[in-house]
Structure formats: C-alpha cells, structure tokens
Design goal:
single chain; about 350 residues; Beta Polymerase, domain 2; TIM Barrel; nine-stranded parallel beta sheet; five-stranded mixed beta sheet; 11 helices; about 35% helix; globular
Length: about 350
C-alpha cells in the first residue's frame, strides 16, 4: 500500500495523498526533515519566489507540499539540472530528486521517504542572462564620469541631484548613450539644501522632488538608498511614487535601503521597481572590486539577471574595464537598468 501511495503522489503532485492512519515504519522526525529540505532549497543559487503551499497527508503523518515557479537560464540537459539540486540529496536521510526537461522548461520533484514534498517548475528565460551595473555618487567629478563613459558597455549612471556637475555628467552620459537615473538625496539630517524636507505638506514635498529632478536631465528613473525618502510604508512614499508614475520613471532600490519593501509599494501603483542584488564595497582596491564583479557575474548566470550598484571611483572604472571581457565570455549581456526593471516587473504578474 505504501509503495502504491508513493507512486500515485509522484505522478499527481497537485492531488493530496491520504496516508494510512498507522504507519509503523514512519520516521519520527519526518516533518523536521521536510523543513530541512525547504531550508536547503533557499540556499541554492535559484531565484525562489514564495511557493504555493498545500497540506498533505493525514493522521500522524502530515506535511506541506511546496510548489515553486522559477525563471532561469536554460540548463543544457537533465544532468545539469541534477547537479544544481545535488546538495539536497545530502541534507538529510531519505531525500530523492527527479528531474525531467523539455524545450520550455523542466520539472524537478523532491521527495522524502518516497513522498513528494517539493515541486519546482523551471521556465527558461528565452534570452541570455543579463546584468545591469549602476554607478552612483556621480555629479562631483567629471574626470571619473568621463572614464566610466569611455568603457564601451551599457553602464547606468545614477547622478546625485544639485551637485556641482550634475547636469554636465547627465549630459555626458546621454551623449554616450548611457541610461541616466537621479539618485535621491538622503534624509533630512543631511545639511545640503537638496536633502529630503521634513514637511508633511504634499505640495511642498512634490515641489522639492520636481526641483531636484530638473537638476538631472535625461533621468528615466530614481535610485533609493539607505536614508533616502522612500520607505515603502508612509504617505510621503506614496506621494513620491505618485510623482514618479506621473513622470513615467521607475525605481531602483539599494538592497537594505529600507526595512519595508519599496518595490511592493511601487507595484501597488504600477511603478516599475527593482531591488539591487549586490552593492559593491567602498574599497579602493581594484582586485577586491573585481572579485565582487565576478560574484555579480555568477548571480546573473544562475538567476538570469543581476542588478549591481557601485560607487564612482577610479578603482571601479579600472575593475570594470578588466571585467567586461569575462561577462562577454560567459554570455552575460550588460544592459541598462530599465531592461531588468521591465523583466522583473513582468515576472511579478
């Protein structure tokens, strides 16, 4: 009976399986081992979204079947898929992994003690992996901006508002065909006049937003960083998001910019938004930055896309020059930030 039920469940993963009321050979820590597999899945280099969870079993044997939908670069064959999921087999006792592949994607079924516990539906990207590299803190130094513009790839320039060379850097980026973003100023505790006003007056806040946006010509989006005004959970955020929508802008949020997810708030008002995957450190060491760019390359290859933010420095410019051939050799396209924003915004629907 157990063999029959196990086979039935693997063939029909969406249908709940009623286990026998008594199962003398069941392992006491079955549920714990299922949770271990779930935790191990989260550690794989996969863009896991929130799964669909369906209760399974009956009596003393109950568990939750998790089903994931994932979009990833195409893996060559079932053997390559097996290698991605090989770590799961060693997480705990009784784990099995089965993978089937076709031209549109693959199905991976994970079981514990012969019972299906996780299903992953892999959908192929349909285009090469992509990486968007955003250079921020621009606007104070024309020489570094020119060095970055001379690199013959699609970098995205995030320009600080109302800085000595904000307009010049934005014009330079546009001349070289580089996408321009406005970097939102940090919080009101900062002394400069462009800092976010403390006001609760909607008209005053939106007038401030319009003024700083005008200081960065050709901007198609805004970046949000720690201390910047977008927090995802107050009315001021809603006012700024309304303004970005009116001006047909999108938002790039630095990882860790706010405890609340600004991209969720942006999605609610149909504003494109993406959160960065990696922040390059402030190190002035070219080799350190190069290693971080290698990590970004691997993220793009495994997840299909990566958004990277780095500070404008001569060391970053030098590291990028030496890293560009590696991206090309790995088949990863360097694209404007808006390309990844569109891709991820579509995947949310």
């Amino acid at each position: 009976m157990l063999v029959y039920l196990s086979a039935l469940q693997l063939q029909s993963p969406e249908a709940p399986v009623t286990a026998p009321a008594a199962r003398p050979d069941s392992t006491p820590n079955f549920s714990d081992r299922v949770e271990q597999v779930t935790a191990a899945l989260a550690q794989l280099a996969l863009p896991l979204s929130a799964p669909t969870a369906v209760p399974q079993g009956a009596g003393a044997l109950r568990w939750t079947h998790h089903r994931y939908e994932i979009t990833v670069p195409e893996l060559e064959d079932a053997g390559a898929i097996d290698r991605v999921f090989e770590p799961l087999r060693h997480v705990t006792a009784g784990v099995t992994v089965q993978a089937t592949k076709d031209e549109n994607g693959a199905k991976v079924q994970v079981g514990v003690d012969g019972l299906l516990t996780h299903t992953l539906m892999l959908h192929w990207l349909g285009h090469p992996p992509r990486a968007a590299i955003i250079i921020d803190n621009l606007g104070n130094d024309l020489l570094t901006a020119r060095a970055l513009a001379d690199i013959g790839v699609q970098l995205t320039f995030a320009v600080r508002a109302s800085q000595p060379f904000s307009k010049e850097v934005a014009e330079l980026a546009n001349l070289f065909g580089r996408e321009v973003l406005m970097q939102l100023p940090q919080g009101p505790e900062r002394p400069e006049a462009t800092a976010t006003p403390r006001t609760k007056d909607r008209a005053v806040l939106l007038r401030w937003f319009g003024e700083i946006l005008a200081s960065v010509p050709h901007a198609v989006g805004v970046t949000n960083e720690p201390g910047a005004p977008l927090t995802g959970n107050d009315e001021r955020t809603q006012w700024i998001l309304d303004a970005t929508k009116e001006k047909n802008l999108f938002v790039v949020e630095s990882a860790g910019a706010s405890q609340a997810n600004t991209c969720d708030a942006a999605a609610a008002v149909a504003v494109g938004c993406v959160q960065s995957d990696l922040l390059l450190g402030d190190s002035g060491d070219e080799e350190t930055i190069r290693r971080q760019l290698d990590a970004a390359l691997q993220t793009a290859r495994t997840r299909g896309a990566a958004v990277v933010i780095g500070h404008a420095t001569p060391a970053l410019a030098a590291a990028l020059r030496s890293a560009v051939p590696a991206f090309a050799a790995a088949g990863v396209e360097l694209v404007p930030a808006s390309t990844v924003v569109v891709d991820r915004s579509l995947s949310r629907h």
